[in-house]
Design brief:
With 392 residues, the protein is mainly β. The chain is 11% helix and 40% strand. A 14-stranded antiparallel barrel has the order 1-2-3-4-5-6-7-9-11-12-13-14-15-16. The N and C termini lie far apart (163 Å).
């Protein structure tokens, strides 16, 4: 259902709570404020995993082609609290797991909980990816995901007897999907992703439903680019990132959003940097890490631009890697930034041809000269002359 229709339903719920709620004016104002944040989250920039400030720690949340890019098994947990000064402000928690199953096949899964006022959305995705090695330092990756999401309403403090209003958002499930492609050339990385292959079904007129949604491959895109620079005998890292989002479903004239980040890592033990997100503001980020563990946080100052709200946003992430990398798999990791060179395959030396040497001839026994015994007298040899005939 379109955003305008979603807003109409939410406005009806707000009016209903305003005039029929039996818990007093204070509770009515509280619920109305919660619905305000729900409207803001849906109508402006939906709170989702692709909007994490520290997207660079786990780029799989932005582009599914990065599943298994760590070269080993990785687990990531991120929590974000937006506009913290207001009760009922949006929060999102994400758990991701991805790994390289083989030389070319990758697998990932992502579980997400998104709380916006009284609306709670839980979703799960499963990703399959493929890595193609084009040259020694060039890789092309692809990933596609499918899953589902479920909506729920938290109305414990509100007494509502109209089932139509409750069922408008509650017990509603819909199909999810995303796809992405990325090119990696040495330390340069370029990607493009479609974060929503299906139109989310936020509102339903049925008590319990599963909506497949409309396939929309041209509504939303995220392009990303980054390059990693090593310095200090390759012990330190400086990496700038740029994200460009296009969302044709937004109601405002501006359908795009630019985001940039610059991060410095020192000795694979400490990182710090800053980010800028158009219409949201500037954030600072800092964290500690080792070769297999990273813990960090970010703090976004008061929003600016289109979503100018005088309230900050904070985020925290914990990431860990398991096992050892097995070459020649492609590796691009924020946690483990050390340069690992795949060893050249060991070539077995060709066996040298055997030289057949001729067999030596057997030695002949020496011929012994037979000598007569000493003192033996040989008989004289008489010369026989032919008879001479006398000529007469």
């Amino acid at each position: 259902m379109k955003i305008k229709q979603t807003r109409k339903v939410l406005v009806k719920i707000s009016l209903f709570l305003l005039f029929r709620c039996k818990l007093g004016i204070f509770l009515t104002m509280r619920i109305t404020s919660l619905l305000f944040f729900l409207l803001a989250a849906i109508g402006l920039k939906a709170q989702e995993t692709t909007n994490f400030t520290m997207f660079f720690v786990n780029p799989y949340t932005v582009n599914p082609s990065f599943a298994g890019v760590e070269g080993r098994t990785g687990m990531f947990l991120t929590y974000r609290n937006q506009w913290t000064d207001f009760e009922g402000s949006p929060t999102v928690a994400n758990f991701s797991f991805h790994t390289a199953l083989s030389k070319n096949i990758n697998f990932g899964t992502s579980v997400n909980n998104d709380q916006r006022g009284i609306l709670n959305t839980t979703s799960a995705l499963i990703t399959l990816g493929y890595t193609m090695r084009m040259s020694k330092k060039t890789f092309l990756r692809f990933g596609i995901s499918a899953g589902a999401a479920s909506n729920g309403l938290d109305l414990n403090d509100v007494e509502i007897t109209d089932p139509a209003l409750i069922n408008a958002l509650d017990a509603n499930m819909f199909l999810l999907g995303n796809a992405g492609l990325s090119l990696h050339i040495n330390n340069f990385h370029l990607g493009i992703a479609m974060p929503d292959l299906y139109q989310p079904k936020w509102v339903s007129d049925q008590q319990i439903s599963f909506e497949f949604g409309e396939l929309r491959t041209q509504d939303r895109f995220i392009a990303s680019i980054s390059n990693r620079f090593y310095f200090g005998n390759e012990k330190h890292v400086f990496e700038p990132y740029v994200l460009y989002r296009i969302n044709n479903t937004l109601p405002q004239e501006s359908k795009s959003q630019l985001e940039a980040a610059a991060i410095v890592q020192l000795n694979n033990a400490l990182w710090f940097g800053g980010t800028y997100k158009q219409d949201f503001g500037i954030a600072g980020t800092v964290g500690i890490k080792s070769d297999k563990l990273a813990i960090g946080g970010s703090y976004t100052f008061k929003n600016i631009g289109l979503n100018k709200i005088a309230s900050p946003t904070w985020e925290i992430t914990i990431s860990t890697l398991f096992g050892d990398r097995k070459p020649p798999k492609h590796k691009y990791s924020f946690i483990s930034t050390g340069i690992e060179v795949d060893p050249e395959p060991v070539k077995k030396p060709k066996p040298e041809p055997k030289v057949v040497e001729p067999e030596p001839e057997p030695e002949k026994p020496p011929v012994e000269e037979v000598k007569p015994p000493v003192g033996e007298v040989k008989p004289p040899v008489e010369e026989v002359k032919p008879p001479v005939e006398e000529v007469k």
